[in-house]
Amino acid sequence: MSNPDNKKCGLYKPGHNTHFVQANVMRSKERFCAEVELISPVSIRVTTESQDQELYYHDAVGLFIQCLAAIDGDIKYAPESNLLYVKTTGQSEDMKGAWFLAYLSKDQLTDCDEVDLESGYFRVDGD
Questions:
Q1: 47 strand-pairing partners
Q2: Coil, strand, or helix at residue 52?
Q3: Mean pLDDT over all residues of the chain?
Q4: Residues spanned by the domain of 95
Q5: pTM (2 decimals)?
């Protein structure tokens, strides 16, 4: 179903990769402090003061590990855009304030190997 090696996933659908344009367009959406619980290899539970929801992500285990390592436990969820923001150290220890974004899905995931013409992803034989 999903591909835990998200470097091999070129989909920009909910539950897969987050394109920088998506993040830029959605950056002004309201965010709420969130807690994250791992449910399965492809699902997490996101809890805020106003919601408690199971959501899907192609590498939920990796995302959960990112959440465990969040700087100051700073995790935010924007339900309008389905984006989870996890504060990280960035590329080096002194670069605080960088954010890891995960584009979550309310629905079961599509296969990472599927072709999605709208995302710009084209599978080439041998990949």
A1: 35, 52
A2: strand
A3: 76
A4: 11-107
A5: 0.72
